[in-house]
Design the sequence.
């Protein structure tokens, strides 16, 4: 079962605040936290610049949450 638009908005607000608070401003050019909502799942992501090309950011999933009614 997919999340409702209201649930998606609540999750987005809460995770955006969490990600913003977790990474200090002085290191945001080195690491970022983000998230992706797909259907009934939410993935928490960490992004870092690539070693080969620092202009390219690579994402790695940290955690995945699934909503089950």
Sequence:
């Amino acid at each position: 079962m997919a999340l409702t638009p209201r649930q998606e908005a609540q999750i987005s607000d809460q995770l955006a605040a969490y990600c913003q608070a977790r990474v200090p401003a002085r290191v945001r050019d080195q690491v970022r936290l983000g998230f992706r909502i797909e259907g009934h799942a939410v993935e928490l992501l960490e992004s870092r610049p690539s070693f080969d090309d620092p202009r390219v950011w690579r994402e790695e999933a940290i955690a995945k949450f699934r909503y089950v009614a």
Notes: The two ends are 7 Å apart (CA to CA). The beta strands are 32-38, 41-49, 57-66. The helical segments are 5-22. Residues 49 and 55 are 7 Å apart (CA to CA).
